[in-house]
Amino acid sequence: MDEYPTGSLDQNIPLLLTLGTSARSTYDPKLSPALKDQAILIRSELPALDTVQAHALLSYVENRDASFLPANGRDGARRYRFRVKTAERSFLLPPRRARLPDGIEASPLPAVLHSPYSPLSPVSPLYPDGLMDTQWILKHQDFIPSVLLCFYDLVSEPSLATLCDNKIKTDVNNLRGLLSQSGYRTRLAVVLLSDQALPSVDGVQERLENIRRVCGLDPKALFLVPPNESQEELERMAENMLTTLYGVAVEYFRDLGRHSRKKRGRNMAPQPTVPPTSGTSQTLSLAGWNVRYDFKSAMFAEYRLEMDNALRSFEQAYENLLGVELFETIPSWSPRWNDARFLADVIAVRCLRCLLWNGQHSAAARRWQAHRDRVAEFVDRRGRGTNNYGWEAWEARWATVMANLIEKAEISDFAPSTLRIYLQPEKNVMGERLQPWELLHHPGYWYHLAAKHLCARRDLAHAMSEDDRMPPSFSPASHVASTAFTYDTYMCPQPHEEYPINSVQGVDHSHKIIECLMRARSEFLKRQQLRFAAELSLECARELTLAKSWRNVVELLRSLWQDLSFRAEGWLTIAEDLSWALRSAATVVGDASLVIAIDWELLSRSFTRRTNWHYDITRSLEGMAPQPRPKVCIKDGQLLPFVATSFSFGDEEGKAGQSTLGQLVIKSNAHQGSAPITLSNIEVKLGGSVSRIVLKHEAASKTTQHKHGAVKLSAVPLLDGAEGAEKAEPGHPDKADRKVTLHGAADLTLLPGQTLVFVMEIPLREPGETRAVSLTLGVESDAFELEHSLNFGEGSGVANIWYISASATKRIARASPNSVRVLPRPPKMKIKNPSWREQYYTDEPIELEFDLINEEVVEAIAKLDVDLFGEDTPAFSAEIDGHDVDESSSTSIVENDESRLQGVSLGSIESSHSLTVRLRLPPIQRSSRYDLTLRVAYHLSTDIGTPIMQTAVFQLNIVNPFEANYELLPRVHPDPWPSLFDYEGVADVSGDNDGAVASSHLTHKGLSQAWYLITRYASFASEDLRVMDVDIRLQTARTVRCFASKRDTAPGSPPEDAGGGGRVMLPNTIVEAGFDIIAQKSTLDDRSPATLDVSLVIKWSRCPNPSSASRNSPPINTTILLVPRFSLFGTEPRVLATVSYGLPTPVAVKVSPSPVPPSLLPRQPQLIILHVVIENASNHFLTFGLAMEPSEDFAFSGPKQTTLHLLPVSRRSVTYRLLPLGNKALPPSTPTTNVFGGAVLSNWIKPSLVVRDKYFQKVLRVIPAADGMKLDKDGGVLLWVPPDVEEDPEEEDESSSEEE
């Protein structure tokens, strides 16, 4: 009775009923027995479909049921909303007109029958003056479908197609006739499922049109589903079908709304089927009929999701209902009074839903408050008042309805992630001064409000007198009559049912209150309102305690009790109430661990002392017998401790190997009069070489004790408790357990208000910071074990205090008195490298030798760690003298940019002795800089527990010993080019050169080119290096073959060493080397450009150190320098020029009668022969023009102007002979430098040679292709003129040999 009738407050969604498919559950409208006898049977004669496609389509339609969708307008993706029901082949519709009841005399005039849900029908509960009930609301929600969707099988077999279509038409017409006879306007839609692929589209379209026309179906109400559709395609078709049918359903409700408004416009009350004759009954007034019509119009608008229209109609119906013409005229003792209140509630709820749908949140909150105030005013003025349990029940119900509406709306701004408590008002009410309750709060607020009203309902129910709670059968009629006018029983039980006087179970108020509180608590927790949630948990626990649901109390309050936030914030009253309530429940359920933990916390004097309580932790489990014995572990911060602790060191810093004083203080803040606590042990956890300090309880311990007042100071000697630790083996210090546990014994009995001070001497072992981290108090009894961990901090009342004696203290001025800084013991182990170099070079193996010298007074047991930091660090190995190969050789591990070698055992190093360690690094390919760190960790044989560390850092610089630059000069290949017109292949080529570059060895048949590579390499080393050999490596495409030969040492190169081991190259010197390169394509058809990759290979070694005792020759290293990529075999024509020298042709000279001495005769100048070669590597026929201009510097013989025609893939040459006429540009006495670097008297001439492509009119650049030629700054060719020399055959031969 405390809830609204089913369906009265549900959102209106059009009903879609499917017919013609087999389903697991069929539709049952649940009509009343009276209406079921008059119901109309709608039945299909064809069997239900049971195919896979039909079930898949039906399953998808059922899954699209919108009954559980959020009640908001944000779901834009869903274009329809249906409540889907399924019937196989038949269903019942309620009668459109109700029959006359039995026993009514027939009227002379024919009776006008009305709907069984109308106040005009005698069979209706509303007859004769009722307004509206739930049955009419359910009529369109569950009884009458807006759309009837029928499924049929469309046979594609031609011989059965006509028969199948006739059956479908007959069945559809039968259903249409039945719906027409029922008087309802339900829309009929048909889905045809084809059994297989149809033969033709035109034939199918004709059949569908025939079925639609004969059955009188709307074009939007006939659908065809092809066979063998995929699941995605079937879902797409179902979506389109439901979207279309939703438009049909909207039109259905639009017609109903239009009909309702039409009847309201008549402005007259209809007459009932039979006039009322019993008592003073009267029919419903016109104002009541207007309320019905407005309510119907609003409901139909809600079906269409026209929320603005629905809100206006609901508000109009609400105002007419509570107006003076209707609600004021109904007596409060009449059942119609409660019916009118019910209708007002329903209208108000639907108004709230419309406002929330439209996003008017503040308007919804104000509308909720306005309905409550208005109903309260009516009940106070004309009802039974608001000071009774019935009104509080309605208040709780009204708050719960608001919470349910907000949850159903799923407002995005109320999502838990937003942590919003309430929503801001709309813009249209921003200027108004709103009260806090006029803002829309989250559902937890409304559930909490409902719980308050439920508590008030219980209090008012329990305040009723026993006479009022007596059943009517045991009370006088007069008292029953007076009771009926005292208590408001609207939608709630009578007084004798609300709170029975006998043992009969009445209303379970605690269950209702707990349910609301738990829902509110959940909402508050979602929004991080932890304090409010804790308050609700306490209220809920009180209710559970009244209900004696102890296990639920423990489950609810345990997590809240473990939360220390309200303790830290000073809410100790809440913590105390919570602890006592939880202890009572834990005692009943037998949770011994929880009882002990609560009693341990309640010992603190921060809580109120409860009289007649023992405050003895050993008696906590009296009356309980837990098995096995519980062990309770309490962590720091889990509860409020009753002890204050601190640990302080006497010194701020110390050195490894020494000791310092430590002081542990424990102060009891237990209640006065509580039992003393005997601690079984105290464990102090330290960070450092000493892992922990353990104190055991001994009542008669021999420690020195001093007492003064409530302070007891004890000096506790500590012993090394390493009996379980491994001792260090000789030569293996890493196997020793460095973590030490110190043990001591003292009297650990702690009285209330007493302070225990323990003074201890703590050895310092490892360097670093040693800090007191935490303290663990242990209590053992026959019934339980307890461990409480406490962290040391500044919050305790005994921190930063040092007890000089039991009666005197001083304050420690340090920032962290619970820590001591341990300085390392100064190491006396030296790490030296006498042969360290400033530079090491790439491409050479590196060996580093270090001496470890022990300057300690005793032997040291050591191990070595080596770290190499840098970019692309290599792996290295270490070797120790005097060790076996298996033990001494170790390889580092490379991780990221670090190569690390750890834990290399060095064994024992005697005092004043040394040990040699060698590190070997592989050759490194590029210049690098590394940081090499050596760490020697050792222990003295007399003090293994104190580690000592010696560190040495070296910077390893690795540089490239050589750098070079390169120049590739073209040369004229001596062999002729192959001809395109030689169909038998390239002719054999012969030559007189040696085998390295001989043309006869070239088996390729493509073009050939000759080049000269000049390399100039410089030494960037800081010392002399011995260059053993210089060579090049060639790499080109597979279609090109290349040969290289090294010329003799170029002038200016360093001389070879007398010892025959290469040439010594001084730092910062440059050496030049030349290489002849011949390249040839594999085939003549390949004329694409090719690339040439060259690498310069230098083999070198270090010069031996004369002072070194080693007789081994330094290793030979190989450095490879990459040469920039060159391009060969271009397709453009090029002009190459070479030069040679000779004597002119002899001429006849008239002999003088008196001979002149030969020294006085004029010297003959050398003849310069200039060869110009034009190469055409393209597929085109080219024509070139050559022009040689006369000059005052030389005379020449050869064509002054000529034209050369070059076939494709060919070359031609022109020869000029030049005779210098004198050194005009440069005086003969001026010293110049020839191409070979010698200082001679010489000159350069510049012939004006122009080569022009006659087709493109482009001047080609003349490229020097031999020694004795160069280009000037203008791009012209300069020819070297040798100095004038005498005609000496031997000198001429030597000169010619040098040129070659």
UniProtKB/TrEMBL annotation:
Recorded superkingdom: Eukaryota
InterPro entries: Gryzun (IPR012880), TPC11 (IPR021773)
Domain Gryzun putative trafficking through Golgi intervals: 632-1282
Renumbered residue ranges of the record's region Disordered: 261-281, 1280-1300
Limits of the Trafficking protein particle complex subunit domain: 336-605
Ranges of Acidic residues composition bias in the record: 1284-1300
First and last residue of the signal peptide: none
Pfam family name, one: Gryzun
PANTHER family found in the cross-reference section: FOIE GRAS, TRAFFICKING PROTEIN PARTICLE COMPLEX SUBUNIT 11
Protein name as it appears in the record: Gryzun, putative trafficking through golgi-domain-containing protein
